Amino acid sequence: MSNSGWGKWGSWEETQALLGKIIGVSHGADAVEKGSIRRWLEAKEFDCPIHTDSSAAKDAGFPDIVAPATMAFTYGVGPYWKPGDPQQQLEDPAKQINIPAIFDVPAPCILSFATSVDVEFGAPLLLGDQLTNTSKLVGVTHKTMSVGKGAFLRQQDTYTNQRGETVAIVHMDIFRFVPHEDAPI
User: What are the extents of the domains in the chain?
Assistant: First the structure.
């Protein structure tokens, strides 16, 4: 069987060999800035003065306006395309977000889905911060489920700013599997 779905094909031994290792690093495409904070707030109609008013942010103990903590995911993702990259063609596979446990870790599986995400926030996102996301494979748990036989791969993403401060730590569980012939998918 070969890989006809998402993820790098390989053996469980290859998967296990990556346990505890860095499996991906991405550098945010843009620094934290007021315009993207505003657009994020507008879409959610989210009114919190520390994200829009310098005085309110300073009164709350910040050096200036801070971005909502969940924007770490926005600021920590590398660009999908940059000048010099080839243009996407209609027959090319869709570009995916950077989830190394699915796309870069070899496993004998053809399908996958996320099962959980846990986030712990740390240092605030300050104007001008540039984020890096470092992904590690921190768990491999084999399981047979109604959809098929595979393993839960636990990816830990650590978002840090240019000062080395941890902005967020994310644990994401991905079930990668080969479906049963009669699986309900």
Answer: 12-76+100-179
Helix, strand, or coil (residue 71): helix
Residue pLDDT, tens place only, 48-103: 999 999 999 999 999 999 999 999 999 998 888 889 989 989 988 777 777 888 88
Query: How far apart, in whole angstroms, are the C-alpha atoms of residue 23 and residue 159?
Result: 14
pTM score, whole prediction: 0.89
Q: Residue 175 in contact with residue 99, Cβ under 8 Å?
A: no
Phi first, then psi, for residue 139 (nearest 5°) are -160, 140
Interior/surface letters 14-23, b for 16+ CB within 10 angstroms, e for the rest: ebeebeeeeb
DSSP string, 40-94: HHHHHT---GGGT-HHHHHHTT-SS-EE-GGGHHHHTSPPS--TTSPPP-TTSPP
- Rg over alpha carbons for the chain, rounded to the nearest Å, is 19
CA 124 – CA 121 distance, rounded (Å): 8
Residue at token pair 């889905």:
113
CATH of domain 12-76+100-179: 3.10.129.10
